Amino acid sequence: METALINRLKAGCIVSCQALKHEPLFGSDMMAAMAVAAEEGGAVAIRANTPKDIEVIKNRCSLPVIGLYKRIYDNSDIYITPTMTEVEQIVSAGADFVAVDATARTRPDGLALEEFIRSLRERFPSVAIVADVSTFEEGVRMMDLQADLVSTTLSGYTSYSLQQQEPDFELVRRLAGLKRVPVLAEGRIWTAGDCLRCFEAGAHAVVIGTAITRPQEITKRFVEAIRHRGEVDMNAH
Ligand SMILES: CC(=O)N[C@H](C=O)[C@@H](O)[C@H](O)[C@H](O)COP(=O)(O)O
């Protein structure tokens, strides 16, 4: 079942429909509408945050869902599905895949990454695991631990990973080059050209969030481009 699901993602566009509490589109209805729009547009899957959003999206949209649950604990920097408590809730909500922080940082419950993955597998053998990593070494470690997919989600979002404005094409290329586990290219993909570069680098699929589902950021891009043009004009006179 996992293999069929993973094959279904191949060469596809996965749309991340997420809005946090402080964002204008916050709310499960909004995210479900985004997911339906993504499905109409030809997406192959949805990435969604919180049990509630996942449940509503699964009810309205027929695409498979990569579920995660962002929760902040005081004693850890890990916030993407940090413990088994969050895993249980997103699986109950209907997630087909579970995305987890797969960095080596200390987890809130102190569980070693190996232990966490082992118990996730034991408890939920039919759920595919998406390992969100920030570096090549973390990706390899998750391949050793037999994650079903590795995603470059956290590149640029840990203190020790490459910080850059564009997607981490090189990380995609290095991980995909190992030909061990399918690799998702995720993070800061803004254009169709970025997507094509990810596929050239060997990505199994691409995950696009902000560029499709955060209108405030999309607007800002246009506004900044216009402002920049104005500044260039002023300097020319
Ligand atoms: C780092 C982190 O917490 N990333 C989150 C992961 O679920 C989301 O906030 C991103 O929107 C998603 O990864 C897609 O990336 P982008 O929005 O750049 O296309």
From TrEMBL:
Protein task: Converts N-acetylmannosamine-6-phosphate (ManNAc-6-P) to N-acetylglucosamine-6-phosphate (GlcNAc-6-P).
EC number: 5.1.3.9
Alphabetic keyword roster: Carbohydrate metabolism, Isomerase
Entries under CDD domains matching the protein: NanE
Protein name in UniProt: Putative N-acetylmannosamine-6-phosphate 2-epimerase
InterPro entries: Aldolase_TIM, NanE, RibuloseP-bd_barrel
Entry superkingdom: Bacteria
Pfam families (alphabetical): NanE (PF04131)
Signal peptide: none
Family per record: Belongs to the NanE family.
Pathway as given in its UniProt record: Amino-sugar metabolism; N-acetylneuraminate degradation; D-fructose 6-phosphate from N-acetylneuraminate: step 3/5
Organism: Paenibacillus spongiae
